[in-house]
Design brief:
Oligomer: single chain
Number of domains: 2
CATH topology of the largest domain: Rossmann fold
Largest sheet: 5 strands, parallel
Helix content: 40-55%
Distance between the termini: 23 Å
Shape: globular
Number of helices: 9
CATH class of the largest domain: Alpha Beta
Low-confidence stretches: 1-13, 15-39
């Protein structure tokens, strides 16, 4: 097998670094910070070309204790991400110049950074299109403030759980080697593919239960978290994306198979 090309690892989001530091402190019996010590704020980047929307969203987030950065276009957003390393991006879809889909594609080429789309286009097809492009969630405008905050907390919790190693162990099945720490899968051919955090969690869940059918509810609970409602066809969207990355023929999958009306299974034979 030819050696993999050497390249710099993607920067670790600050939320992952904080979580890993807390894990190390607990595992080695170190003392926590004294009560009253200042806690580092989670940093969220809001990207939207509509100033009133940015102002309202930033106000809601700051009221919850988050640090907020703002950009009104995709290019400025990418520069801020490079410089400030936010923990989460709230990204509008319809922006002039570099729109939300193109901006997300650029983000995914550089970082394993959670992204929630905020868009006035709220039809199921629009949500599916956003998820297919690699978003961690999709929220239609106008939204209830409580729902926005709940989605933000849910995505950050999943990111933190991933950093603490909830599926941290490398796993191998059917010749596919998955490394959740780097969000990469090495295929039997020797080719390495990059995955998003949600894709990694979904594939890890299926691989560690290889040969067993997992229902839609089981996958939602294990990958997205208990009590997460999701959207129609949400799991199907991510399975389809995974098939395009790991299957030799995505239209005739050998590994990620469908148990019609029930769920999905990772086949090893």
């Amino acid at each position: 097998m030819p050696p993999l090309p050497l390249h710099d690892p993607p920067p670790v989001p600050r939320s992952l670094a904080r979580s890993m530091a807390r894990w190390y402190t607990t595992a080695h019996g170190a003392q926590d910070e004294p009560t009253g010590a200042p806690q580092e704020q989670m940093r969220i980047l809001v990207v939207d070309d509509d100033p009133p929307s940015v102002k309202m969203t930033a106000f809601l987030l700051r009221e919850e204790g988050y640090e907020v950065l703002a950009a009104n276009n995709g290019r400025d957003a990418l520069r801020l991400i490079d410089r400030e390393q936010p923990d989460l991006v709230l990204l509008d879809v319809m922006m002039p110049g570099l729109d939300g889909f193109e901006t997300l594609r650029e983000i995914r080429m550089r970082y394993a950074l959670p992204v929630i789309f905020l868009s006035a286009k709220g039809e199921t097809a629009d949500r599916v299109a956003g998820l297919e492009r690699g978003a961690d969630d999709y929220l239609a405008k106008p939204f209830e403030p409580a729902e926005l905050l709940a989605r933000v907390k849910a995505v950050l919790r999943r990111t933190e759980a991933h950093a603490l190693g909830e599926p941290a162990d490398r796993i191998e099945a059917a010749g596919i080697r998955l490394d959740p720490l780097t969000n990469r899968a090495e295929l039997p051919s020797g080719r390495t593919v990059e995955l998003t955090p949600i894709e990694t969690r979904l594939l890890h869940c299926l691989m560690r239960n290889a040969g067993r059918v997992l229902t839609h509810d089981q996958l939602l609970d294990n990958v997205w978290g208990a009590n997460y409602g999701g959207y129609p066809n949400q799991i199907a969207v991510y399975v389809r994306r995974l098939r395009t990355k790991i299957e030799a023929d995505p239209d005739r999958p050998q590994h990620l198979t469908t148990a019609r009306g029930v769920g999905y299974r990772f086949e090893i034979d």
